[in-house]
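Request from the bench team (R.T.):
"We need a structural guess for the complex before ordering more pyridoxal-5'-phosphate. Sequence and SMILES attached. Just send the C-alpha cells back."

Command: build protein-pyridoxal-5'-phosphate structure.
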Amino acid sequence: MIYLDHHAATPLGAQVRRALAHAHEHAWSNPESVHQLGRNARGVREAVRARLAQVLGAKPADLVFAGTGTEALHLALLGFARARRSEGVRKLVIGALEHPAVLGAAQLLVREGFVLHILTPRAGQPFSATELADALGDDSACAALQWVNHETGTIFPIAEYAAVCRDKGVPLVVDACQALGKLPLNVTELGVSALVVAAAKVGGPAGVSALWHERCVELAPLLLGGAQERGFRPGTPDVAALAGFGAALEQLPERLAATANIALLRDRIEQAGLALGASVNGAESARVATVTNLSFPGWRADILVAALDLEGLCVSAGAACSSGLAAPSPVLQALYPEAAWRAEAGIRISLGPETSPADVDRALAILRKVVGRARQA
Ligand SMILES: Cc1ncc(COP(=O)(O)O)c(C=O)c1O
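Reply to R.T.: structure attached below.
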C-alpha cells in the first residue's frame, strides 16, 4: 500500500506513538485536578503549550487548545463575529477556496443575520490584497482566510492580507492547518488576529488543534462550562493526544527540511501525470511542495480514486471530509469556472517526509497502469 494522502492525515512516527503511549500510562488524569497525578497531566499539557508558542512566535498564554481544526476555526470565526455583532457590523469576508470548516462556520453566521462576501480567484491566481481592501469596511465583523489550500497547495499572500485587515481594523482569522510544517510561521511578524493549526497535518494525532488569538480582540466562547483554556474551550482535554502533538512539534524542523526532496518527488508525479494527459490544477500560482492536483480528461475523480485504491495507491478527491461525496470539488470549480471537467476529475496526491522515491516509482506504475489502460480501451 502506498500512502499519498498526507494533506488528509499524516502518519504517526515512532516518537509520536511513544509519547502517546507514555502519556496514556503516566498523564491520563484530569489536568485540572490539584493532586500529584493532575499536576503531572498539567505539566505535560503546559510543556506542549510552551513548545507550540515557541514554534508560532507567540506567548503560551495566548493559545487555546481545542479538538479538531474545524472546532478551533469555528471558535475563532464565530467568536470574533458574535463579539463584534452590532446593527452596522454584519459583514464576513472569506475566500472562495476555504476549507469546508470555514465555509460551515460562515454559513452558521449567515443564519444568524451576518452577510457573506466571498473573494474569488482570477485565472487561477489568489485574489489580491487590493480586492480584499475593497471588500472590507466599517461594516465588516471579521475576515477568515486560509494560508495554504488543502487541495491544490496554493499559497495565499497572507502577510499582505494581514496588513490590509490591520489597516482597516478588521480581525483576520488565518486557517494555517495546511501551512504549519510546510512554511515558516510567526504570528507576531504576520500581525494577524487569530491563527489555527491542527496536529494531524504535522505527524500528530487527529482531534487536537490550537487557536492562537490576540487578547485585545474580543472573542466570545462557543461553549460554556468549566474554566479550562481560559473558558474558551471548557471540558477535560485529551492530554495524551496533546503529548503526541508535542512530540510531532519536535520534528517540525526535519519536516520543513524535507521540503526540497518532497518537491522533487512531487514534480516527478506531475511530469508523469502530464505525460498521461492530465492538467495540473493550481499550477498558475505559488504552491507548497507537498501536493499535486491532477485532472485526467474522461475520468470522474471518485472513480479514479477507487480504481487506484484497488491497486494499492491511497490518494483522494478533494478535501478528505468531502471525499465520500461524488460532487465536483468546490475549490476547482472556483479556480476553473470555465472548465467544469477539471473539478469533476481532480484528484489530490499529497506527500510527506516519509514518502520515498520507491513509493513514487510504485505509485507511478499504478497510475500508468490504471490511466494508461483506460486510454487504450
Ligand atoms: C486547510 C484546512 N483547514 C481546516 C481543516 C480541518 O481540520 P480538521 O479535520 O482537524 O477539523 C483541514 C483538514 O483537512 C484543512 O486542510
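Two things stood out. Residues 68-70, 99, 101, 146, 150, 175, 177-178, 198, 200, 209, 319-320 surround pyridoxal-5'-phosphate (CB under 6 Å). The two ends are 26 Å apart (CA to CA).
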